[in-house]
Structures are given as structure tokens and as C-alpha cells.
Give the backbone structure.
Amino acid sequence: MKWDYRHHLLLQIEMLRGDVSHEELSERLGETAERCLARYLAGKQPIYEKDLILIAKAVDVAPQMLAEAWASSLGLRVSSTDGVGQMYRRAYDRWRHHSRICGVPSSPSPMAIIRAKYAHRLPRKIPSLWCGSHFLNRSRKDTLANRARFARAYKMLLESVHDRKSHREIGARHGISGERARQLMVDAAYTWARSEKIDLSDRSVGFKKEGALIRNLYAALRFFARQEFNALAAEDSLRGMLPNRDKSL
């Protein structure tokens, strides 16, 4: 656990929350910040500077204090003026290294976002678009080949959004790998979304089984609470200060 930034952050949250219950902490964090923290714990996405500020506010401490406590827990030092920014950058670098090795997605897929929020706007009829037209700096030309490619990818996108099929199922049906099907659907999703002026970088859309990630977040906080209590109890016991339990309770 020595260099696990995620667990050290949770440990500091648990130590700093004081009398704030986990239920109240959930309310103070709000849905988006709670979701982001749960995703970070699960390794699904990095923790951002604005998330750290919201977490500090939820446990009623200054963001700089949270950053310094987190750094100290890891055996690190931070600037007295930009501790939050420094810890964000260090944690982001660690997460990026981990995600590159493990192939972790940094956010819900564009297909998941369209399915959750824009399925009603995704027409069954194939729009008059072409693959690559969504790139701002290197958009592909409007050719018959690119339009045919988009039409094929768009049909797969419809299967993902409206029929809720996985990229593996879609790939098998079209005679390609699941990963290739996913790449084509991402291209089609961004092409269509840009034509509709839709932003697909939406952090409010949940990952699959996100409820389990949030439950794991509070299970981890309770674990650290027990660890902290046991450590204090052991310290008091060594000093001969541990009070006798009332057997009548």
C-alpha cells in the first residue's frame, strides 16, 4: 500500500471527516464528486483538482490541508501554496501509468453516454455524414468510401445504443473483432454527436455497475475507520489506559 495514492487518499478522508457520518459525507460530496471518487478508487479514472476541492469541502477542511495530509501519508512534501495542484498532478501521473498497463478506460464510452442521455435523438435512418468528419484538425474528405464506412459503423452504433448489444456481439455479427467494432462505433458516435452539437465528455453518466463502485468506496472508508480504531486501542492498551468494558452492555 506504500505507493497506492488511492488508498492513502481514502485514509486521509476517513481521518479528517471527524464527526461527519458516511451518510452525511455522501450528501456533502454530491452525486458527481462521489461518483468520481468511487471511480478513482476502482482505478476507472483519475482524480481531478476540482474533485479534491469538493472532497475537502465535504470533510470541512481547507483543500491545502487535505493535500498536505495526503502527501504526508505518502511520505511526500508539497508546496505551501499549490499543494492541491501538485498532488493532482502526481496522482494523475500514477493513474496514467496504471491505466496504460491495465487498459483502464478514463471515462464512460461515447456509446454509453449516447445510450444514457441521447438515445431518443439517435435516428434509425443513417445520416448523410462520413467517417472522420468530426476531426477538427485532420478531417477526412467527403468521399463515397468514407460515407460507406460511416454507414457501416453507424449501423453498429444503432445496435449498441438501441439494441444494447456488446461490442463483441456486434463484431461477431459483422465479421470483425470486438475491438475493431468498438473503434468504428466510437468514430461514428463522435461524427454524429458533432453534427448534433452534443458534448460526449460527460462525467455525469455512470459506468456499468457503478452502484457497486460507490458501495466499495464506503466499505473501504469503514475498513480504514476500523483500522484507525484498532490502532488507537492497541496504543492505549500498551500504555495501560484502555478502560474496562462494561459487561452489562
